[in-house]
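Propose amino acids for all 294 sites.
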């Protein structure tokens, strides 16, 4: 461990960023000399020729068990929820309701399986061309904090780099940054090391530069237990709670702005709202009815 730390310090003094792979190799060599057991880093990347690792069998995407389905550029919509994350034992009730509402909102769109993962819901898109339509629907569902059109990758540095290149190809960005988060803490690289590794790769492949404060493009990477998600944009949602978790209320709605705003705020708190409107037809014209319908 001390030798690895000296290597990082030496490279920092020389003004260069330490290579994450070099740090991992240094730790590995220290383990050999000290007689400690060798850590399994096969899920970091394959052999030098780009082949999958040869570690013990594990979940899909780990230790060389990468499948073509995971390595392909599969388009997904990753949905992060809002206040639901604060719930404890009754969280499944809220998540299930959110999934139900997402299914209803996208019922007529080419959306495949909807998966519930820790802290997020993933919609698999049957047609990549429909990503814009699906995003527009999902961003209006209460309970959604933000959603992103993402690309799926296996848990190896080679696969992450390959997916990053394909996801960024065709985009024009003068500056960028990489923002990595690891829900799977056993991943060999830390979040900072992953930022550096992918950032170096992007600099080599694209004519751009790094700007950590005001980047033109923020490249997000989420490392999960069996897969990784990569995306470049977060579309904000309305937040709040899913409609249907707080009972039903009745709202008197007129042609003004106050009653629709009040109903909206109640829906954001999870209420199912039934609207009641009183009109003066046939003594008055039907403009108020048309306004309410709009």
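Proposal:
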């Amino acid at each position: 461990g001390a030798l690895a730390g000296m290597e990082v310090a030496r490279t920092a003094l020389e003004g260069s960023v330490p290579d994450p792979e070099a740090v991992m190799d240094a730790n590995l060599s220290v383990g050999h000399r000290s007689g400690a057991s060798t850590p399994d880093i096969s899920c970091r990347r394959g052999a030098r020729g780009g082949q999958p690792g040869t570690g013990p069998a594990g979940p899909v995407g780990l230790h060389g068990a990468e499948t073509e389905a995971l390595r392909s550029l599969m388009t997904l919509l990753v949905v992060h929820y809002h206040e639901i994350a604060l719930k404890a034992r009754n969280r499944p009730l809220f998540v299930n309701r959110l999934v139900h509402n997402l299914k209803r909102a996208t019922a007529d769109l080419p959306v495949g399986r909807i998966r519930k993962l820790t802290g997020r819901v993933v919609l698999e898109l049957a047609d990549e061309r429909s990503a814009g339509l699906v995003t527009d629907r999902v961003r209006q569902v209460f309970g959604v904090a933000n959603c992103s059109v993402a690309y799926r990758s296996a848990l190896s540095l080679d696969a992450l780099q390959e997916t990053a290149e394909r996801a960024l190809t065709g985009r024009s960005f003068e500056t960028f940054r990489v923002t990595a988060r690891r829900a799977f803490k056993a991943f060999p690289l830390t979040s900072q090391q992953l930022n550096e590794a992918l950032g170096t790769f992007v600099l080599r492949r694209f004519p751009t530069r790094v700007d950590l404060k005001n980047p033109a493009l923020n490249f997000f990477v989420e490392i999960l237990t069996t897969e990784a998600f990569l995306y470049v944009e977060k579309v904000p949602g309305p937040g709040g709670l899913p409609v249907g978790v707080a009972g039903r209320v009745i709202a008197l709605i007129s042609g003004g702005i106050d009653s629709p705003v009040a109903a909206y705020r109640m829906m954001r708190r999870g209420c199912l709202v039934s609207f009641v409107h009183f009109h003066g037809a046939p003594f008055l014209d039907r403009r108020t009815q048309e306004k309410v319908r709009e």
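Residues 1-72 have pLDDT under 50 and may be disordered. DSSP finds nine helices and eleven strands in the chain.
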